[in-house]
Specification:
The complex is a heterodimer of chains A (158) and B (154). Helices cover 28% and strands 32% of the residues of chain A. Chain A has 4 helices and 5 strands; from the N terminus they run E-H-H-H-H-E-E-E-E. In chain A, strands 1-3-4-5-2 form a 5-stranded antiparallel β-sheet, covered by helices on one side. The model of chain A has no long low-confidence stretch (mean pLDDT 96). Chain B has a single domain, classed as Hotdog Thioesterase (Thiol Ester Dehydrase, Chain A, Roll). Classes of the chains: A alpha+beta (158), B alpha+beta (154). At the A-B interface, helix 4 and strand 2 of A face helix 4 and strand 2 of B.
């Protein structure tokens, strides 16, 4: 088993870790990127269907990305320690089916995971496309975020 | 300023707005917090990667679009948040010095079945760079309040 595309398995799951959303973090993200009343203050959220402050869905998604990158860094360090060659990682062509079924509120601890859904060849022989289902679950076991993300990943030399 | 309610979103309507300057500083600031990969963090390291130079995180481009949306019309929209995003495609790299703008085309609209005070609007976004190349497309499903008089009559 290596970290190259060719050794990936459909169905393989990764625990990515968890993140606690604070009121300060939720508001700081919203000021920069998503200044809607229900992401900025409890007062503003009172008039919305949410009743109190909730995190931007883009914040929930961005934290998932951060934990994916941190997970890769850990995996690469472990592989390097075993003396393995390390693959290049590419960019993402896109994501699909992002859903935020339950709101994320201050104090929530969201635990993220990913599962490989498909492995497909691309026009470029050195790169494969890995598609994974990302998921975030709160401390009560409710899924708050899900989506399918693609990333280009180096293949073993033929 | 009049609010934009569900009834104000007509399938086929197009809005164009936004001018967001992309700087290396902002690319790196977003990446340090949310997407610390070499091609988002460091010009030199990025040269050796698929990106062939510093590029913005795709999630950064998403939130730059979203910020333009908020400033452009979402601020006026009686938005109740997003139900979901069917698809985001990152078609071209976004680099320091780029100027982004946005076009939103309204797709299908329908009243919510479970909540009569809300409607569901499909928003199809294109994000352009200064060369008017489409760098990203996004299809978002938004929840929008219905005009109060309409909701009260139901």
């Amino acid at each position: 088993m290596s970290l190259f595309f060719d050794d990936f398995q459909i169905g393989a799951e990764s625990e990515l870790g968890s993140h606690v959303f604070t009121k300060e973090g939720i508001i700081a993200f919203a000021i920069l990127y998503d200044p809607q009343p229900f992401h900025l203050s409890d007062e503003g959220a009172k008039k919305s269907i949410y009743g109190s402050l909730i995190a931007s869905g883009w914040h929930t998604a961005s934290i998932c990305m951060r934990l994916i990158v941190d997970h890769r860094v850990r995996q690469r360090a472990e592989a390097a320690a075993r003396g393995e060659a390390l693959p290049k990682t590419g960019v993402s062509p896109g994501v699909r089916d992002l859903r935020w079924p339950v709101a994320v509120r201050p104090g929530d601890r969201i635990t993220y995971s990913s599962r490989i859904e498909s492995l497909t060849e691309t026009k470029r022989p050195e790169w494969g496309l890995v598609t994974s289902r990302m998921s975030g679950v709160n401390q009560n076991g409710a899924e708050v975020f899900s989506g399918l993300g693609g990333v280009l990943w180096e293949r073993l030399k033929a | 300023m009049d609010k934009l309610y569900f009834e104000d979103f007509i399938s086929g309507d197009v809005r164009e707005y936004g001018d967001c300057e992309v700087s290396a500083l902002r690319i790196k600031a977003f990446a340090e917090q949310f997407d610390p990969q070499p091609f988002h963090l460091d010009e030199e390291a990025a040269k050796e990667t698929m990106a062939q130079g510093l590029i913005a995180s795709g999630w950064h481009t998403v939130v730059m679009l979203h910020r333009m949306n908020c400033d452009g019309f979402l601020g006026k929209m009686a938005s109740q948040g997003g139900l979901g995003v069917d698809e985001i495609k990152w078609l071209k790299p976004v680099r320091p010095g780029d100027h982004l703008s946005a076009r939103c085309t309204i797709g299908a609209t329908r009243p919510s079945k479970s909540r009569p005070e809300l409607g569901i609007v499909e928003l199809n976004f294109e994000t352009f760079n200064q060369k008017l190349e489409v760098v990203m497309t996004e299809k978002l499903i938004a929840l929008v309040s219905r005009r109060p008089a309409t909701a009260a009559a139901l």
